[in-house]
């Protein structure tokens, strides 16, 4: 083992993953240039009609069938295992496969149902995919590091290897979920694309010449191909929202303390200034709500010391439903007020993103809602200050993980190699003070919009780009500022799919004058020919801990634009 | 100014404070040995009957009179200004006096009431004292540092000097509170006693040979003398609870994110691993509840980015009221389950503390409640790990504050001088990980007590010492572990006064075998002759963010033991 090269270890692991796909589910992967888009009809060709029906049903609809016994958990599990197996072969989105365990669990759920005439919990028989930071018994967690193969987070002899499970895994099982695979991540987790030396690149299924995003890029690709109805990712700088946006999905970045992170693997664990959070990605808002409610029903605050005792707040949700006329009497129907961020002034969004903003703004205006220009305190400062927290340790944690195997760094995170000076206590404290001041300024601005709206309330949500481009081209993710400001402020954000690139409409601006080199790079990375068909998404941002409200708004906006 | 010595500057400030006390309120301060206890009849001799009536009314009762116009805000303000002036002369508890502004504000409140026939808010006309970390317009914030005199947090030319107000000050004013003084703290805030080079020592009014505690020691002494009905302190290692306990008061340490700390001065600002929190001290639980509800009614989460959007939760409170039969029908009456921590195994509590535990345990048992022995994971580890966070910067912040004037360090914090190596990013991260693991272990233990109780719930609260002694003797605060574990875990804790030292009962254990030198020091510091009459208090500890529940339990326990 010690004499094995990292290449051999990576290859063995890569082949071991593939070997877990049954022969009858093996397919040939066509060259990208021959088959750019592998979603829809392309992947359906390998599935039965029944499998397509099951896998193209949203999570919230699936459980309506499974908790009533109309669909067997086994059928549902098998259909998703099959489709996930196909997805992996087409876009490389899985790190761990445990279909056999899933099918056994599903059978046990069916037996439970047959015996007790009731479901185990609200997720009875629902397949849920997990980013490869969750520990699940009987399989590894590599997080894309070759050096983590055969270890527990890089360590051997901990007694936790293939035994320990993350807190949320326990809660998902308690709720009746069926776990069947873990999805790919970029090594370090600090890239908005998904690349590592074990599975290579994870491609965007809608357009395989583009990235599926990252760091929850395997989730994005898998759910984008309907190989999972709902899955959990994590987000420290955009890592749930980027793959959601790039794959035409809904995804929520909850605020810190809402969902249990306890017992998960992580990068730079213990960096406390900007915390990574865990949250779901899915094809519908009700799917996101379903799994969040199920987790909260398990009282995660009794098992994760960092989770706030905040059960699902129906009253927050109800307020939005009443304003939008979904429930309640006519007297309560009113306007929502949106802020619209067209640019952060650092890097300008590319044409399809600008069009998406116009679509959402027009839809909301047409429905009588209010839109004000969002002119907040500098996002540049938020971004610059936030980035510091990711280099407090000068890459010590990351270097340690790479040194276990000697494997090379992906180009995007090679800068960590150059860092050699850790921040000291007083510098970290100064960064924390500065961050708090920026949060205060931003909050003051938000609250001040009460004067600009006619609702008597500050803006309810911000309509904003999540990235300057619809998806990134490999190694061309030049700017993270559109996602990181939300992490810096610890705000709640929900990604909403809006449209798809149409090369006939979304032409490059011939006379665009870039702000600076970075902006120029972003601008030049947009090529309508390459991007044609790609998903175009936006985020709706609420203040801290407004998950219920923001999901309700996102659902309303999504429905209003026909998504 | 630059040529002035720190002594001259300190003396000038000390005299300026005294000079703000009107001639007619000046008294002679008797030598301590002549008058150990200056509470009750002693201080009353300088007050009118009406002033005694007003100042010995609890905050919650005061507002019943002031919000209905029965008592004028001016009368109430003047009575407390007078008594605070006396208190300061007897125990040195004030850093800033602004009686004139208070009386003017009170008159304005009376005019408002006369005109509108309604109060400004729920605290209409209630005097509220503030620890000298709050910024209040027109006065300074020295935090006990000579070098901060005439500055804004040690800096000059910020434009904030005597203009800027802390967020909670704004909210208190909005609620109708009358602000009139700021109370003493130990320089650095990192001592459980109150001593600095400006006002010297703050004495315990019940027993002036003992400390009033710290760091909110001025609050403790002032409220202990009824010079304030309710005041706000802060707590990073016990600083609200210690003065509350030492002065026979109720005091709550809320969890992080419940009350707004925005815009307050602090030590080691930006240290993010164990955050200081702000909370009230008062002579009754309803007083604490009153001010916390008033603050929450101001929606502090819209003005302090670190406050959670958690309005007052009546349902949490109601649950306890129903179980204890205070409201609701008989079917809901039940048992509370308490854990009792008799010792943390590191340092043993002195005899009066042990007796206080027996009193509370017996009272709860007699009322039919359940008591189980609390045998948690090591408190020693909690204490040791927690202490690290207070030296992350190797005292850089503190040294800077002292260097402004060249004043000497109090003996208790001289160790900061010796520190010369700041923690680096990866060390801080490792500490944070360790803390999270300890929190998880503790939470698991707590939840596991569900199996040991007959209530179907884990323990509702822990009955625990807050310090190993009833109050500390000056410079003899040898062990903070009984308060710091709560900060380390971010739990909610309410101090409850239980009894007073009785030298005839609370004798020293002649045959006590100390655990180690520290334990020996604590044991030897207890002298029944010196301690006779001192307040003896305990804390009731709940899990994170259980403020409503813990106040209800504390009120019930206090009432049950006749407090």
UniProtKB/TrEMBL annotation, chains A, B:
It catalyses: a monocarboxylic acid amide + H2O = a monocarboxylate + NH4(+). The keyword Disulfide bond does not apply. Keywords: Hydrolase. Residues 76-551 form the Amidase domain. Belongs to the amidase family. Its EC number is 3.5.1.4. InterPro entries: Amidase_CS, Amidase_dom, AS_sf. GO terms for molecular function: amidase activity. This is amidase. Pfam families: Amidase. It comes from the Eukaryota. Substrate binds at residues 189, 215, 236-239. It is an enzyme of class 3 (hydrolase). PROSITE patterns: AMIDASES. The active site is at 131 (charge relay system), 215 (charge relay system), 239 (acyl-ester intermediate).
């Amino acid at each position: 083992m010690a004499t094995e090269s990292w290449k051999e270890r990576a290859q063995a692991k890569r082949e071991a993953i593939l070997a877990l796909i049954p022969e009858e589910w093996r397919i040939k992967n066509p060259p990208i240039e021959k088959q750019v888009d592998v979603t829809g009809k392309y992947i359906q060709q390998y599935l039965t009609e029944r499998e397509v029906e099951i896998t193209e049903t949203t999570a919230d609809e699936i459980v309506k069938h499974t908790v009533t016994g109309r669909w067997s958990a086994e059928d549902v599990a098998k259909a998703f295992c099959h489709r996930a197996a196909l997805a992996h072969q087409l876009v490389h989105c899985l790190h761990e496969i445990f279909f056999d365990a899933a099918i056994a669990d599903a059978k046990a759920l069916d037996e439970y149902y047959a015996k007790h005439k009731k479901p185990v919990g609200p997720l009875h028989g629902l397949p849920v995919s997990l980013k490869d930071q969750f520990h699940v018994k009987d399989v590894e967690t590599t997080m894309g590091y070759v050096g983590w193969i055969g270890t527990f987070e890089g360590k051997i002899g901990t007694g936790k290897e293939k035994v320990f499970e993350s807190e949320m895994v326990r809660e998902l099982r308690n709720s009746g979920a069926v776990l069947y695979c873990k999805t790919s991540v970029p090594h370090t987790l600090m890239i908005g694309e998904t690349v590592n030396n074990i599975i290579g690149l994870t491609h965007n299924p809608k357009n395989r010449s583009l990235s599926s995003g990252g760091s929850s890029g395997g989730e994005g690709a898998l759910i984008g191909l309907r190989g999972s109805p709902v899955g959990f990712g994590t987000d420290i700088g955009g890592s749930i929202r980027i793959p959601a946006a790039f794959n035409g999905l809904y995804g929520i970045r909850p605020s810190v303390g809402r969902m249990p992170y306890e017992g998960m693997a992580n990068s730079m664990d213990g960096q406390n200034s900007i915390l990574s959070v865990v949250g779901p990605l899915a094809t519908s808002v009700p799917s996101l709500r379903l799994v969040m409610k199920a987790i909260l029903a398990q009282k995660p605050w009794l098992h994760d010391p960092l989770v706030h005792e905040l059960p699902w707040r129906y009253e927050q949700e109800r307020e939005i439903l009443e304003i939008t006329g979904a429930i309640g009497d006519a007297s309560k129907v009113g306007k929502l007020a949106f802020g619209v961020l067209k640019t952060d002034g650092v890097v300008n969004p590319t044409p399809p993103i600008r069009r998406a903003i116009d679509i959402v703004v027009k839809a909301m205006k047409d429905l009588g809602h209010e839109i004000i220009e969002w002119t907040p305190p500098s996002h540049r400062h938020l971004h610059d200050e936030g980035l510091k927290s990711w280099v407090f340790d000068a890459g010590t944690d990351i270097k340690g993980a790479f040194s276990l195997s000697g494997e090379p760094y992906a180009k995007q995170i090679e800068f960590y190699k150059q860092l050699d000076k850790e921040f000291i206590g007083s510098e970290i404290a100064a960064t924390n003070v500065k961050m708090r001041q920026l949060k205060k300024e931003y909050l003051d601005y938000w609250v001040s919009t009460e004067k600009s709206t006619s609702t008597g309330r500050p803006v309810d949500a911000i309509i904003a780009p999540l990235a300057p481009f619809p998806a990134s081209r490999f190694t061309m993710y030049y700017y993270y500022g559109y996602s990181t400001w939300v992490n810096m402020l610890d705000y709640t954000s929900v990604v909403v799919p809006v449209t798809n690139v149409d090369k006939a409409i979304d032409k490059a601006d011939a006379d665009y004058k870039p702000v600076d080199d970075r902006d120029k790079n972003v601008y030049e990375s947009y090529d309508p020919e390459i991007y044609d068909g790609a998903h175009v998404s936006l985020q709706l941002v609420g203040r801290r801990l407004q998950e219920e409200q923001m999901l309700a708004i996102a659902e309303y906006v999504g429905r209003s634009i026909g998504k």
